[in-house]
């Protein structure tokens, strides 16, 4: 049996580990200590740990200037923090000497099961290859270029092409760069090419959907449904990308990772969606028709004879107009309320007139 | 000899003096006309009740001893729509003020009859004969609230290019003169000031429309349901227009490789243009036809328009997807021909489908295989209903061909203020007339 003393850095990651095999272990700034603290707030002989006859370890403060504090216990949340003069150590105690954080662990304490590698790990491994990432990046750039060329009949200026290419490439590079930087800071892992590949895949999927939605709208005149489907697609792509980014670049636990990946994009999309749905029933003096036009090699439906189409039009004329009555009733109620307050007579005369 | 020359001289003198005299007569005549008829002219004021101030101005004139006043419908339209919010007042040339009661309207010819609460002494006679072309007539009214004004001009017959009869008056009519009379030199009303196209080109409502309205009012007695009257007038008007269109001979004119219709009736005028530029491989030929005038119902609601347009697009050696991208971009915004708000109409209800139509006609020599395939088009048919006149609709039709790699024909029409029967008849005729060989 031994006691393991872990020196933690600010991010609570283990910086150094010491093993106490004897029955005394000293901590302090002095060079004769077992654990030499690099901390100007710690005394030369700050604290000591002793193995008592009962087999327990005791932590004792050596009258240090700043004292020794118990910050808590990683396993037992009921243990309160407080100053320590002498304490029987329980495994996983968190202790502060000066400004240095230490974790004290009984070497025989149960160790949690190993976390299995995430099933996506090998997928991310594949994406991390620079050649693949750059290939994907170029595919995105070329796809953007081809789509813009096919969607534009006038003389294609090279400046437009350069703009588009650089725009899409720089956009993806900035995205990957930003996450790589976060990863570097938080986890000491860059994963730049993996981020780049994920961004490129996301962009490709969305571009593909975008084209496919025009095809759907052309053939089936989906109207507002296209916008809703667009939200759905984004609500799938964005959380997936964010989840991957969080997985690769941060230390968030599983639950938090899912929460961040879902709540952020869905929150913003939800706001947009609410606005879109709210605006759908608004009055518009323009007919809401799909204006999508494609050559009929992309036509999936069988055309109906014009005569038949026109013959079916009478159904369109059956439009309910109850709304106006409601409005009128409301207005009348408002008006009555308005007029009765200042002058009762005026309200009455207008009614008899009408 | 001497005798003869003396006689000639006398004759010449007579002529000159005659000319001078006649000039004198017209000059005096205008003064005389004004002083004779000023008593029957009024400014019509639309007063907003809550602020008790002017919300609109127009002119009007008395047409009967019992105090009936005629003016334009558009001068009083707001008081028709919101009688609780507005009230109408008249102001005579001498500053006498009084209230007006709205009695009868003709929305098609933009006329209204009102009654003064205290009738004035003078009133104008309505002319029974039409003036001769070139005859001097005088428009009276109060332009821009500057005071009662007299503007001489000439009668130029009924203006062409409209479904609604209007006298073309060569004289300046300005805002505020609307609803004022135009009288002949005998002081009889020949028209009612209604609109101007600027530069001495102005329009008057022929007086027989006013005589008809007056007759209608007298026949109805004292109670006229303005909404029902408007409804009936709109119904009759659309019937008149649709009848004239369907009875006409629809002459086809070519547009690119297609044949489309042009000016079916004189009231519909067509304009055309070709859009081509060096940096755009797609050439577009446009043809737009429309009946010029609309029926004014309120500031943001008008109706009674017939409008159709055609576009022919073509390009050589252009990838279909590039051609169709440009085609889609150019044809993505079509609007109804009239203005209407949420208060007045429902939303458009639309149906979209791909339609096929046989390419009939003689066989073209160059491309025989194309003749076998029908024209496939993306066709939309949209309808909105008038909330106050539930058997009237605005109809929107748009058909865009999609079966050729780099040729396209677009046909589009809007009808505003028509019944379902009229719309069906027009649509059937319209779609059967468009051809692409």
Question: Which strand order does the major sheet of chain A show?
Answer: 2-1-11-10-7-8
Class computed from helices, strands and strand pairing of chain A: alpha+beta
Number of helices of chain A: 9
Which bin fits the share of residues in helices of chain B? 10-25%
* Low-confidence sequence ranges of chain A: 328-354
Name the poorly predicted regions of chain B.
Answer: 8-25, 362-367
Write up this protein.
The complex is a heterodimer of chains A (about 350) and B (about 425). Chain A is α+β, with helices and mostly antiparallel strands and about 350 residues long. Chain A folds into 2 domains: about 5-105, Tumour Suppressor Smad4, CATH 2.60.200.20; about 120-280, no CATH class. Chain A contains 9 helices and 12 strands. Chain A has helices at about 120-125, 130-150, 160-185, 190-220, 225-250, 255-280, 305-310, 320-340, 345-354, and strands at about 5-10, 15-20, 25-30, 35, 45-50, 55-60, 70-75, 80-85, 85-90, 95, 100-105, 305. The radius of gyration of chain A is 35 Å and the shape is elongated. Chain B has 3 domains: about 40-125 and about 210-225, Trypsin-like serine proteases (Thrombin, subunit H), CATH 2.40.10.10; about 135-205, Trypsin-like serine proteases (Thrombin, subunit H, Beta Barrel); about 235-435, no CATH class. Chain B is about 25% helix and about 40% strand. In chain B, the strands form 5 sheets. A 7-stranded antiparallel β-sheet of chain B has the order 16-17-20-24-23-22-21. In chain B, strands 1-2-3-6-5-4 form a 6-stranded antiparallel β-barrel. The chains are: A alpha+beta (about 350), B alpha+beta (about 425).
